[in-house]
Design goal:
about 425 residues, ten-stranded antiparallel β-sheet, 28 strands, mainly beta
Length: about 425
């Protein structure tokens, strides 16, 4: 897992300009799109839903289900008031609708797809003009501050002084959405979402990356004590009740796997999520530098006196006194902070009916990282029974300043068997 983690970090800076063989629909594609990259199939929609809401399907790996629903939850304080907004079946909140804050009726609020196999300056590059108007990034080759996809040199390829879309890897899918939905009154939160992946680099063929650029547009100067959660409901194979989950706090990953001796075990995928770039916080320490990764062409930005946060807690439903149905904003926020729904710290030893503590004393475990262990050594805090796992991986606290984006990059990675997961560890 350590080697894989390092490779994925490096790959963020390398993912540009690689060929992809797949479906040919690119440019402005509407509300729904099915990403097909190597063996991964992931239906997405332009309101932030991953899988659920886009079509009656699941995320699949080599035709086998691995994900019932993906998304995120965001929560914090506005002055002293707790708020939670999300696009997540896990917590039963769907707050986001397509478009920028105050611009939800714009017909250009669609998914925009770019592939490395698209002809330079073709339809998908021209459609990206509308994406840029909505806030999408681009490579400004001539430095004039405008996105103008024109082949100035008339040679049929892009040169360093010509503009191009924000293509990351072989496929990039971009949209923007805001929290003026139906479940809660809006805070004025806007999210520009970029999903991207590679097909020709072998170590990245089973990975999709998601960049969330989160901006507060509301009436206050900022939102504080903010937490962001990767919220996923993995269903590995056809039997969603035969799954287990865990995490590795040191490498910021959370994973789901099959615990079975069935003959088809090599066909069952495992699935893990990871924080690759956390939000920035100010430290004031001159030697501290945060990293904001934007691909090899646009490049990386560093901010002195800042650092990127790391994974702060992991939670898996169900747990004692915690249920995913009809939780209040305060209860969800407590889970995002790594406590139980009442705001009390978890006590690992009280999970003895749900857990195996292997070669570890439960009194010494970090209570913020449920099931932190290696199921193949085995060692650590491990799940005892297979269930329908639902995972909440959290990072925070940080501040959302008005009109200043916080950027978070995560990864979804899938493997073909539990032996692959064992090798990863």
């Amino acid at each position: 897992m350590k080697n894989n983690k390092t490779i994925i970090f490096i790959a963020i800076l390398l993912l540009l300009g690689i060929k992809l063989n797949g479906q040919e629909v690119t440019g402005k594609v509407g509300r729904f799109y099915r990403i097909e990259n190597n063996k991964i199939t992931l239906p997405v929609s332009n309101d932030g839903n991953l899988v659920r809401g886009s079509e009656p399907s699941t995320g699949k790996f080599d035709g086998i289900p691995f994900l019932f629903s993906g998304g995120f939850v965001l929560g914090g304080l506005n002055n002293a008031d707790i708020w939670v907004r999300g696009q997540s079946f896990l917590t039963y909140v769907w707050d986001f609708i397509p478009g920028k804050v105050g611009d939800s009726q714009n017909p250009d609020n669609q998914l925009y797809v770019i592939k490395s196999s698209d002809p330079p300056f073709g339809k998908s590059w021209v459609d990206w003009i509308d994406a840029v108007k909505l806030g999408a990034r681009f490579y400004d080759g001539d430095g004039n501050g405008k996105y103008e996809p024109v082949d100035k040199n008339k040679n049929g390829k892009v040169d360093f002084d010509e503009d191009m879309p924000d293509l990351l890897g072989d496929i990039t899918v971009w949209c923007v959405y805001n929290d003026d939905g139906f479940f809660h009154l809006p805070q004025g939160i806007e999210v520009a979402q970029t999903i991207f992946g590679s097909s020709s680099r072998p170590y990245l063929r089973n990975v999709l990356f998601i960049r969330y650029a989160i901006t507060y547009r509301g009436s206050s100067s900022h939102l504080d004590s903010v937490y962001f959660s990767i919220a996923v409901d993995p269903d590995l194979g056809e039997n969603n009740l035969n799954n287990k989950a865990g995490c590795d706090k040191d490498f910021q990953i959370s994973y789901a796997y099959k615990d079975t001796l069935e003959n088809d075990v090599k066909k069952i995928p495992f699935f893990f999520t990871s924080f690759l770039q956390g939000p920035e916080i100010y430290t004031g320490v001159p030697n501290d530098k945060s990293n904001i990764n934007n691909g090899a062409i646009i490049g990386r930005r560093q901010n002195q006196g800042y650092t990127n946060l790391s994974h702060s807690s992991f939670f898996n439903f169900p747990a004692p006194d915690s249920f995913p149905y009809e939780l209040s904003e305060e209860q969800i926020y407590n889970l995002m902070k790594g406590t139980n729904i009442f705001g009390n710290q978890f006590v690992p030893c009280e999970f003895n009916e749900l857990s195996n503590f292997v070669n570890v004393n439960c009194d010494t475990l970090n209570p913020y990282f449920m099931y932190d262990g290696n199921p193949f050594t085995p060692k650590g805090w491990l799940m005892n029974n297979s269930i329908d796992v639902r995972m909440l991986s959290n990072i925070g606290p940080f501040t959302l300043k008005k009109d200043t984006a916080q950027e978070i990059i995560i990864a979804y990675a899938i493997g073909s068997s539990q032996s692959s997961l064992a090798d990863a560890f």
